[in-house]
Amino acid sequence: MLKTIHGICILLSLGSLVFGGLPLIVVWSSIIAYPLMAVRWLNYMRREISGVLSGDCMFSSLPRYSHGFFSA
């Protein structure tokens, strides 16, 4: 009887470790991913702004067919 209770406790602790670890993995991956996305976005915006300052179209990264739409 004592061994079964002990086994159930081990299973529960392992389960909580696995399921408790999942949110931690999500949190850590988002902590790592958001700054990377922010850096990429800032680089993109800096490139677009420097393109505008040099006289290029702001929507230079968009496909060709959209240029007429934005210039109209």
Architecture overview:
The structure is a single chain. The mean pLDDT is 68. 0% of the residues are buried. Helix content is 79%, strand content 0%. With 72 residues, it is mainly alpha-helical. It is built from 2 helices and no strands. The chain has a domain at 25-72. The longest helix has 52 residues, at 2-53.
Set out the fold topology:
Layout: H1 2-53, H2 67-71
Brief overview:
Helix content is 79%, strand content 0%. With 72 residues, the protein is mainly α.
Provide keyphrases for this structure.
0% strand, 2 helices, 72 residues, mainly alpha
State the shape.
Answer: rod-shaped
| Helix content estimate | over 70%
Mean pLDDT: 68
- Cα-to-Cα separation, first versus last residue: 80 Å
- Rounded Rg: 26 Å
Tell me the β content: under 5%
The major β-sheet equals: none
Q: Would you tell me the structural class of the helices and strands?
A: mainly alpha
Order of helices and strands: HH
Number of strands: 0
Low-confidence stretches: none
Tally of alpha and pi helices: 2
